[in-house]
UniProtKB/TrEMBL annotation:
Keyword Amino-acid biosynthesis attributed: yes
Keywords: Amino-acid biosynthesis, ATP-binding, Decarboxylase, Kinase, Lyase, Nucleotide-binding, Pyridoxal phosphate, Transferase
Positions where N6-(pyridoxal phosphate)lysine occurs in the chain: K539
Cofactor: pyridoxal 5'-phosphate
Active site residues according to the UniProt entry: C816
Organism of derivation: Lysobacter enzymogenes
Pathway this chain belongs to: Amino-acid biosynthesis; L-threonine biosynthesis; L-threonine from L-aspartate: step 1/5; Amino-acid biosynthesis; L-lysine biosynthesis via DAP pathway; (S)-tetrahydrodipicolinate from L-aspartate: step 1/4; Amino-acid biosynthesis; L-methionine biosynthesis via de novo pathway; L-homoserine from L-aspartate: step 1/3
The organism's place on the tree of life at top rank: Bacteria
Protein name per its UniProtKB record: aspartate kinase
Keyword Cell membrane applies: no
InterPro entries: AceGlu_kinase-like_sf, ACT-like_dom_sf, ACT_dom, Ala_racemase/Decarboxylase_C, Asp/Glu/Uridylate_kinase, Asp_kinase, AsparK_Bifunc_asparK/hSer_DH, Aspartate_kinase_CS
Length: 866
């Protein structure tokens, strides 16, 4: 049945929004605006003043017979409301006299002695009755056309089958399908605007019932549904729902638009902004919801409605603490008939609703969510005793449930390998994939969950599982909202546009390097106090002009092949050999011999080389590369530590290497580890230094510790620049702890990535089955990174840089491989046509260095500026 929307808008304000006079002014302004500008009638639903519900709970839940503190709490509540009333310029006796009398009378109510549930409900409901009374009086005093109404006259609690007595009184649901005439009766109230209470409803026996914690959102939703409102607005002190809790993950993104089902999952699995129960009433009635920020009303907030286009991908990651797992082992029987019925019946008996379920032939493990259940030790003990009749029980707590929410979880599994890897390091008790394909939950020990979320969030973005570039769904990050957009300097190539276009006219594909950028990056590193020497990993870009530029800034050079060593001495004939490192992988013997002959520093990473080629290494001074047991980096293919990696001597063979070297009279003067490339965590390198320094102490001949390269650059628009300050601070600290070793770094990418662009020419623009493609005269043959690592590079039409009439294009090359795609769904000018110049940004590292002539396509030309 199509719902006919009425003229009501429901606005809900939480505790912090009703505890200050200026916040009430905001409420008056917002409500007035809806009335005057949008022509709506307004219902405002409020929570209690902040902290009041906690006090009321302390009173309501105090064990019977324990009155310590209760009189003082009542007195405190009276005082708090009287003071605030006066602050609002109102007379406390006139406005609150009656209400406060009711509050105080509850202390001596006969039901108080036994803490009767209906008395508890009366107590808990007082906060909203007081705050709404204050608000109505204040808003009227300010000239707004506001009246007060008692929510209990309009919201009826419904008894759900199997709900415990407790739940039927203190965690109720309400009827939200209106009886005929409801809207008319409600609308017959005289004032254009009304204020009412969240959190409370009418119990079937005429008393008060409570909606449970966070119940004001649900009240607003019930009213929205019953009134068939235009919209329910949840006004809060955050800008909306985020892709993770911003307090834990500052890079969490605002979710601008969600459908009801996604919002429901996110709310259920941890986001505190919106109470999970509040979504179903609005969904059923087709009433759109909005979450908005009282302090920043210009922000768009989160909109929840049925029309949101379905975008597959992870929208949010959340964490719930205090989860209790109950593991039940059937006693001796495999797939015992009726086992589930037996155990579930016992949960029902204790009024416990089960959240997640994992099962095997003989075991069922379920989780209980404390926000939905009264899970205290008494209940658990009683439950365990009952369950022990039919199975062996183990209670595991406290656990944390970490949930990924989004549409099409199953189709994303291939992108989640790093997420699985992250959980692989923790003890996972239970994994559950919801049958609606909207969530994937991992339950681990609460202690293990600390610090995990920022890492997981980052991995979700990096792997493409969270499609943050889709701005119909993802808004700005929390950090951006708080601190403003990341200030990035305009890239050098923007100012060089005419020159670059002229170069492109002379022929493409063409790499162009800006040496000023290379020098600038080199200086930033060379000025690091804790670092004694810097080497440039020339595999990233071995153009002679680049080598001369970095050497000119004081860098040495790190090589991985004899050809690279030769390139060094060709480009810089007077290069001192001790400023050159040779760190090969599985190189042939003659390369080591040639390198040693040249006098460069040679690094070995296995015992076998020493054993097979003793004469090569006898009496030599060597460095040793270690595998510290784990790899890091932007893609699994660039992680160079851990069992899957071919690099480095495992720690278990460290002593064997040292012994073998001793036998040959070879001296180990340096320890080295490079665990991967494009590592975001600035603290990674201090950890490497600490590990190597610990080992160095045991060798006795070590002078130098090389902590590798791997510094990242910000390729994507949302990435932040690497925090060099934090990197330096980490190194300063660890160097102070182990001052006796020379500290060496050997970055490649960081120095050259941003200095280089790849210029291409458009060959064809084609639309096929709804996908538009811009074809270029080179693709993965010139730049392998997107095909090989799903790496992102900014792509621009340099011929039409200012043309903002864009459409989404895939940018592809001419190579006969489906992976020949430089970028997918990039916004580029619709007018793009044959002959335009395309610029691929940040291509200075591992661009030309990895180019090839597949399909017999010519290698790109290289050119240098500055
Ligand atoms: N040191 C050693 C021993 C290395 O193997 C590498 C890079 C580096 C230093 C420099 O790492 P960087 O600072 O550039 O991250 N082709 C991949 C990167 C492979 C890195 C190989 N080794 C990419 O395009 O992302």
């Amino acid at each position: 049945m199509e719902t006919q929307q009425t003229g009501w808008v429901v606005l809900k304000f939480g505790g912090t929004s009703v505890s200050r006079r200026n916040r009430w002014d905001t409420i008056g302004r917002l409500a007035g605006k809806r009335l005057r500008e949008d022509g709506r009638r307004v219902l405002v639903v409020v929570s209690a003043l902040s902290g009041v519900t906690n006090e009321l709970q302390a009173i309501a839940y105090a064990p019977a017979g324990d009155d310590g503190g209760i009189p003082a709490r009542f007195a405190g509540l009276v005082e708090r409301h009287r003071t605030f009333c006066a602050e609002l310029g109102l007379d406390p006796d006139t406005v609150l006299g009656e209400r406060l009398a009711t509050l105080v009378a509850l202390e001596t109510d006969p039901r108080a002695a036994v803490r009767a549930l209906d008395w508890q409900a009366e107590v808990l409901g007082q906060g909203e009755l007081l705050s709404s009374t204050l608000g109505a009086a204040y808003l009227s005093s300010q000239g707004h056309d506001f009246g007060w109404c008692d929510a209990r006259e309009w919201l009826d609690a419904v008894s759900l089958p199997n709900a415990s007595e407790w739940a039927q009184r203190l965690s109720v649901n309400c009827r939200h399908h209106a009886e005929p005439g409801f809207v008319e009766r409600f609308s017959a109230q005289p004032t254009r605007m009304l204020i009412t209470q969240g959190f409370i409803a009418r119990h079937g026996d005429g008393g008060t019932a409570i909606l449970g914690r966070g119940g004001s959102d649900t009240s607003a939703a019930y009213f929205g549904a019953l009134l068939k409102a235009q919209r329910v607005e949840i006004w809060t002190d955050v800008p909306g729902m985020f892709s993770a809790n911003p307090r834990e993950v500052p890079d969490a993104r605002l979710l601008a638009r969600l459908d009801y089902a996604e919002a429901q999952e996110i709310a259920t699995t941890g986001a505190k902004v919106l109470h999970p129960r509040s979504i179903a009433p609005c969904r059923d009635a087709g009433v759109p919801m909005a979450i908005l920020d009282t302090e920043r009303f210009d922000l768009p907030g989160t909109r929840i409605d049925a029309s949101a286009a379905t975008v597959p991908g992870v929208k949010a990651i959340s964490r719930r603490n205090g989860i209790v797992l109950v593991s039940m082992e059937s006693i001796g029987m495999w797939q015992q008939v009726g086992f589930l019925a037996d155990v579930f019946e016992r949960f029902k008996r204790h009024g416990l609703s089960i959240d997640l379920i994992g099962s095997s032939e003989t075991n069922v493990t379920v989780s209980l969510d404390p926000s939905e259940n009264l899970v205290n030790s008494n209940v658990l003990e009683a439950l365990s005793a009952d369950l022990a009749e039919v199975c062996r029980v183990k209670v595991i707590a406290p656990c944390a449930a970490i949930t990924l929410v989004g549409r099409g979880m199953r189709s994303l599994l291939h992108r989640l390998s790093d997420i699985w890897a992250a959980f692989g390091r923790e003890r996972v008790h239970l994994i559950s994939q919801s049958s609606n394909d909207l969530n994937l939950t991992f339950v681990i020990d609460e202690a293990d969950a600390d610090g995990l979320l920022p890492h997981l969030h980052h991995e979700l973005i990096r792997s493409g599982a969270m499609p943050v570039r889709d701005d119909s769904v993802f808004g700005p990050s929390w950090r951006e909202i708080a601190d403003g957009k990341p200030q990035r300097a305009a890239p050098w190539w923007q100012a060089q546009r005419p020159r670059l276009l002229a170069m492109a006219a002379a022929g493409t594909p063409r790499y162009v390097y800006d040496l000023a950028t290379v020098r600038e990056r080199a200086r930033a590193l060379i000025g690091t106090a804790a670092v004694d020497r810097c080497f440039y990993a020339m595999k990233a870009n071995s153009h002679p002009a680049v080598l001369r530029a970095v050497v000119g800034e004081g860098f040495g050079l790190e090589c991985v092949s004899l050809a690279e060593i030769e390139r060094v001495f060709q480009a810089i004939p007077h290069m001192a050999p001790e400023r050159v490192l040779f760190t090969p992988s599985f190189a042939p013997r003659h390369e080591y011999e040639a390198a040693l002959k040249r006098g460069v520093i040679v690094t070995l990473d296995n015992v076998e080389a020493l054993k097979r080629w003793p004469e090569t290494f006898r009496g030599r001074t060597l460095w040793l590369r270690l595998d510290l047991g784990h790899g890091e980096g932007h893609h699994e293919k660039v992680r160079t530590g851990g069992v899957a990696a071919k690099f480095g001597l495992p720690l278990a063979r460290f002593d064997a290497f040292v012994d073998e070297a001793r036998k040959l009279g070879a001296r180990i003067s340096g320890l080295h580890a490079h665990l991967g490339s494009g590592i975001d965590d600035p603290q990674h390198w201090r950890g490497v230094y600490a590990s190597l320094a610990g080992l160095a102490d045991s060798v006795g001949t070590i002078e130098t510790i090389d902590i590798g390269g791997g510094l990242p650059v910000a390729y994507t628009p949302e990435a932040r620049e690497f925090d060099l300050g934090a990197w330096r601070a980490g190194l300063d600290e660890i160097k102070a702890a182990y001052p006796r070793y020379g500290l060496i770094v050997e970055p490649g990418r960081y120095l050259v990535a941003e200095s280089g662009v790849l210029l291409l020419s458009v060959t064809q623009v084609v639309e096929k089955d709804g996908v538009r493609r811009i074809g270029c005269d080179a693709g993965m043959n010139a730049l392998m990174r997107p095909a090989m690592y799903e790496a992102y590079h900014g792509i621009h039409n340099l011929s039409r840089l200012d043309d903002a009439d864009n459409a989404a294009f895939d940018v592809v090359g001419p190579v006969c491989e489906s992976s020949d795609v430089l970028g997918r769904a990039r916004l580029l000018p619709k007018a793009t046509e044959e002959g335009d110049t395309i610029l691929v940004a940040d291509a200075g590292a591992y661009g030309m260095a990895m180019a090839n002539s597949y399909n017999l396509r010519a290698l790109p030309v290289e050119e240098v500026l500055g």
